[in-house]
Recover the amino acids of this structure.
């Protein structure tokens, strides 16, 4: 049985950039629902005993009729956990940029941190419909900005994710309504770059 992970901070900790009401509903309702439906999908597919990563990297091994529910809810469960852990309330002007070896590779690939941020924001802003924009380590060891639709998880595609923004409307609609670029701009203030660097060095 999978259980909803606790948030690593309180519901109001990411204010004013991420409002308490949205964080509470997003975690206690949306993420909870993915967790409940994941458990049902795991049972239906006979996937009990597997880790979430094992499920996400072997979706095609399950009975075809069970794959959609398993993909949607294993991704919904894992992506949200990863999303919460990609943010932190403890940021300052100095920590709102990448650091360490990840910063070096970002500069090498995108030209500068600002250019990377611009490209990531543009891609997240342009994503059509529900989904996620990710910074990932590609299979060749480089960095890529990718989108996934609905609840597709980069682990299922062979990527190692470092950072993600949720661009489903439920992620920002209470505060930002239809203004997704404002949510993206707010998001940059609460990114946990130490976490991204940690994920990168372990990749
Ligand atoms: Mn969401």
């Amino acid at each position: 049985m999978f259980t909803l992970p606790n948030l690593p901070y309180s519901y109001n900790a990411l204010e004013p950039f991420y409002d308490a009401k949205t964080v509470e509903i997003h975690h206690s309702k949306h993420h909870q629902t993915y967790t409940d439906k994941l458990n049902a999908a795991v049972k239906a597919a006979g996937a009990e005993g597997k880790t979430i990563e094992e499920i996400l990297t072997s979706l095609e091994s399950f009975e075809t009729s069970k794959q959609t529910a398993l993909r949607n809810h294993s991704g919904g469960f894992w992506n949200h956990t990863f999303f919460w852990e990609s943010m932190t309330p403890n940021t300052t002007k100095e920590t709102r940029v990448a650091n360490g070896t990840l910063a070096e590779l970002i500069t090498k690939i995108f030209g500068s941190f600002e250019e990377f941020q611009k490209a990531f924001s543009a891609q997240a802003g342009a994503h059509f419909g529900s989904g996620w924009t990710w910074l990932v380590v590609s299979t060749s060891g480089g960095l890529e900005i990718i989108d996934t639709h609905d609840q597709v998880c980069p682990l299922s595609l062979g990527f190692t994710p470092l950072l993600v923004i949720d661009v489903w409307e439920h992620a920002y609609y209470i505060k930002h309504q239809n203004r997704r670029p404002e949510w993206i701009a707010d998001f940059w203030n609460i990114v946990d770059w130490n976490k991204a660097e940690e994920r990168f060095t372990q990749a």
Q: What stands out?
A: The mean pLDDT is 97. DSSP finds eight helices and three strands in the chain. The two ends are 27 Å apart (CA to CA).
